[in-house]
Amino acid sequence: MFALCRSDIEQEERVSLNLDFGNYMNKHDEFWEKFYSTHRSTVSRYLLPIILSILSLIIIKLIFLSCGGPPLTSLALLSVIISCIYGGKGSAVVCTLMTAIGIELVFISSNSFYLHWGHSVIRVIVYGVVAVIVCGLVDSLKNNLVTCRLQKNLVISEIKEKEEILSVVSNDLKVPLSSVIMSASLFNREADSKNLPDNSAKLISVILNSANRMNSLIEDLLDSVKFDSGSFSLNLRSYNFIEVVSSSVDESQLIANKKRIEIIFENSKDALEVQCDPERCIQVISNIISNAVKFSPENSRITIKLTEMLKEVVVSIKDEGCGISAEDIPKLFSKFWQVKGTAHLGTGLGLFIAHKIIYMHKGHIEVESICGKGSNFKIYLPRV
What we know:
By secondary structure, this protein is α+β, with helices and mostly antiparallel strands. It has three domains: 2-159, no CATH class; 164-229, Orthogonal Bundle (Helix Hairpins); 237-382, Heat Shock Protein 90, CATH 3.30.565.10. Helix content is 66%, strand content 11%. It contains ten helices and seven strands. The strands form two sheets. It has a five-stranded mixed sheet with strand order 2-4-5-7-6, with helices on one face. Strands 1-3 form a two-stranded antiparallel sheet. α4 runs antiparallel to α6 (117-192). The longest helix has 76 residues, at 117-192. The radius of gyration is 35 Å and the shape is elongated.
């Protein structure tokens, strides 16, 4: 018992030390980040090297007077490095010139300076070359540190983004999963008693719809992962695209009927061959139609047109919904992005995946929308 308690105490102490060290490192990083990344005025950038060069000369002189021996001129490099970090190369150059000339004047007599000015100039130049090399290394390290910090912030934002979407998906999965469990439990209980309820068909429909919804969410996540890993592929073949659009309309008809939304498919052709992956194209068109249904009012209309052009086939999906603002249209196909006020109505992956799939078909998607008057999504695919 004592051993267990001791172990727990030691573990808590280690955790506490790790937290303290982590907090210390975070504060340390924040200090240096502010020190080297803050935009400073020209006066402050060049005032600091002047102060540092004077202080370094005073310190070198005091050490020389108290300890004797050769002057510790290498200490002046420290002021050059700090100036470089604080104000950049220009600040470091000013500090270098001041400390180099100051060392020559302070530690060499004026007569000797004028007699051996050539040696003094060489020493100043050598000191300047060394300082420039050091400044270059410091500046390179500083830039790398800034880059690493930006990449770290990017990774952190991506992790937070994924955590948020996983939270949304988990919440979205809980609702249909609860419906499946409750309906299946009720159906199973009544089936055991051989007394099936009158609403058996409705319970089965709830189970199927909920299961399909969960499957759609999971498929979107899997497709997103495949795009990230580069393993997403298409099964391209020549196919009648009219059948693709018809199948997409049929898949979306059920959810449209629930809101009494009429889907009209306008087409005058019997066959229109397109090189495509029919299953993936059905996924894209069904997704856009379901979005149109989702954001359209009841008793409205969704019009789908299939147009044949010289080198392309165009599928137009026009709704009478709330529309999309001009500033939001460029963000529509971004990963995990959703229009404000529509959170938890989806994963934010549907249009991202649709855009990727059409792009892999060497096509593109255009969006025309007016707030309050609906949207028109146009899918362009190359013909055979």
